[in-house]
Amino acid sequence: MMRQVTLNDTEAIAIGAGILGTGGGGSTYLNRLRLDNELRRSGKSLPIIRADDVPDDALVCAVGGMGAPTVSNEKLQEGREIMRAVRAMEAHLRQPMHAIIIGEIGGGNALGPLVAALQLGLPAVDGDSMGRAFPELQMDTFMIYGVAPSPFALADTHGNIAIFPRIGSAKQAEDFARSLTIEMGGSAALVMPVMSGAELKRTIIRDTLSLAKRIGQAVLDCRARSMEPAATIAKLCHGRILFTGKIIDVERRTVQGFARGKLKISAFTPLGPPNELGRSLEIEFQNENLIAWLGDEVLCAVPDLITIVSLDDGEAIGTESLRYGLRVAVLGMPAPKELKTPAALAVVGPRAFGYDVDFQPLPGDLL
Amino acid sequence: MMRQVTLNDTEAIAIGAGILGTGGGGSTYLNRLRLDNELRRSGKSLPIIRADDVPDDALVCAVGGMGAPTVSNEKLQEGREIMRAVRAMEAHLRQPMHAIIIGEIGGGNALGPLVAALQLGLPAVDGDSMGRAFPELQMDTFMIYGVAPSPFALADTHGNIAIFPRIGSAKQAEDFARSLTIEMGGSAALVMPVMSGAELKRTIIRDTLSLAKRIGQAVLDCRARSMEPAATIAKLCHGRILFTGKIIDVERRTVQGFARGKLKISAFTPLGPPNELGRSLEIEFQNENLIAWLGDEVLCAVPDLITIVSLDDGEAIGTESLRYGLRVAVLGMPAPKELKTPAALAVVGPRAFGYDVDFQPLPGDLL
């Protein structure tokens, strides 16, 4: 169990969060720089607490960045957006927060909340509401299991803040927040949901920050021994390598605030031409990788995790960074069990993303 | 000076507000029905107070409907949107409002605030911040003369509410509110700005509700005597009849939350064909009528008022109701003096709307 985050931990957490990000959650590079800076500036470590240590009647809030990673990589944040949004929410409610919750453990969104927690002088909780990254607000265990979507807050780089004290549904919150995020330039800081300790304990996926660090540490160990890390990562996450090969096509647009598109990976083996059935893998994404096709066969689909890592060093490749020629391994990892209930699959299963296929889970659970 | 609004006043106020609406501000028909209903339901009249009666340290807020009149005429409101937005703002600030301020006296937006005031049990103030209607939030004397744009609130028909506790500029408030209004279906209730009594007295255009009632009463008098009311209206507003004729072309689109377009009016006189220079008038609009051209000559432009009324009965014709064949008079009326300072013209003059012409004011002031 993690008790703190120090400068010694940030590289491993960033690598692991990238891998859990399934292509999304934003760049870990920028947020790791911010986290290192904030740790150096404060001269302290960041305390990490367990969800079960939060009193039932304490107030906590999940936080993160909203928008397309294609945008947030190029349009830099000022650095205190999440902090300002939390402060505005505390002022609105006239009540202080007890701890900061990571909304999604995937990608840079694992690290941004830690930066904000340091700025706010609050501990962060080991866990999140996805065990990965997802593109839309309603797609997390807090919402799926009944935490109210309001109040929530958005903040932009220029100091503008919006608070939604009352919203009918999580999907409606997604629609309002998305259109405002686009108006804010395509990326914004989000505080959502605000909940009690009791609600947190009922709905959070525990220990995912520790998992990210373990994954990252394993990748670093492989690198130190000049081993390709893909198999090690897959084992640690109870998953498998779906495919290895070279990216031969990427189609990507930034539409309605999302990075959407698909890519094609050609197998390395010399058997047959690249496009022969079964020898090239197609992956479709909406910020995150959603579904992997081998011809007509679905190899893996949401909510199970599809992550593309660089074959040599195990570094996760975000959907915004996919490009022709990269040599990659595609990992398939089972989702946390909290994402595989009927209630969850209605929100994060293949059909929720418009794919007319049943969810065929990989065996096992992420953790 | 008005002291109250009763069921006997609403027809005249609606007619007058329509005429001050310069084509926008939304339909007076629906909001007059709502006002009559609310007056009947409460069994009371609505107290009207003077701006100078509001204590300097009291809290007041301007309210109105935001969106395209093409939308709000067809997508009916639930009826308590403004009330909910005001209540949410009071809860956010932990402070009650002293009175309700009409944001724009033009069109249905003159009446909606009166409905809300009745629902809230608050008086309304005789005056507004435009003396007419304008399409965008930053275009009012509160903003022009330095009242802060935040906090402001938006509410939709479904009970969703957004509060913006901190916004950098009035134009930024317009951009955020507009994109959220579109997401809310194209019309929403707005509370903006929130201000002190001292700020109100420094920035409001006084007595415009009384003016609306006077105009409407004069139109009703003309109708009772079977007189065409256009000349009477023009005189009462210190303006003139710019043109009379028949609408022969209307081009209208609902884009980015606005009703935009232009229309052409052909003169009645038998001299020459309709399109001969000088014999047909063109008006361009963005929710409101912005500029009237006679060939290359600008007859009237914002902030002066251009209102199209039905020739027979003096009823104002909103930009959403323009259609081929209507027989109309086009009235040009001078803007209130508060809209003609250099600071105001920078925001509401012809160039602020993209027209490369200088503002050539009509002689006199609206009131």
Percent helix of chain A, as a range, is 25-40%
**CA-atom Rg of chain A in angstroms:** 19 Å
Strand order in the sheet with the most strands of chain A = 15-14-13-12-11-17-16
Count of helix runs of chain A: 11
Oligomer: homodimer
In short:
The structure is a homodimer of 367-residue chains. Chain A has 367 residues and is an alpha+beta fold. The first copy, chain A, has helices spanning 10-20, 28-42, 69-72, 81-93, 112-120, 141-144, 170-183, 197-203, 208-224, 230-236, 342-348, and strands spanning 4-5, 46-49, 59-67, 99-102, 124-125, 127-128, 152-155, 161-166, 187-196, 205-206, 240-255, 258-267, 280-286, 288-294, 297-301, 305-310, 327-333.
Describe this structure in words.
Two copies of one chain form a homodimer. The first copy, chain A, is of the alpha+beta class and 367 residues long. Chain A is built from eleven helices and 17 strands. Chain A has helices at 10-20, 28-42, 69-72, 81-93, 112-120, 141-144, 170-183, 197-203, 208-224, 230-236, 342-348; strands spanning 4-5, 46-49, 59-67, 99-102, 124-125, 127-128, 152-155, 161-166, 187-196, 205-206, 240-255, 258-267, 280-286, 288-294, 297-301, 305-310, 327-333. Chain A has a seven-stranded antiparallel β-sheet with strand order 15-14-13-12-11-17-16. Chain A has a five-stranded mixed β-sheet with strand order 4-3-9-7-8. In chain A, a hairpin with a 5-residue loop joins strand 7 (152-155) and strand 8 (161-166). In chain A, helix 1 (10-20) runs antiparallel to helix 2 (28-42), helix 1 crosses helix 9 and helix 4 crosses helix 5. Chain A is globular and about 60 Å long. The model of chain A is unreliable at 272-277 (pLDDT under 50). Chain A binds chain B through residues 88, 91-92, 94, 158-168, 172, 175-176, 179-180, 182-184, and chain B through 88, 91-92, 94, 158-168, 172, 175-176, 179-180, 182-184. Strand 8 of chain A pairs antiparallel with strand 8 (161-166) of chain B.
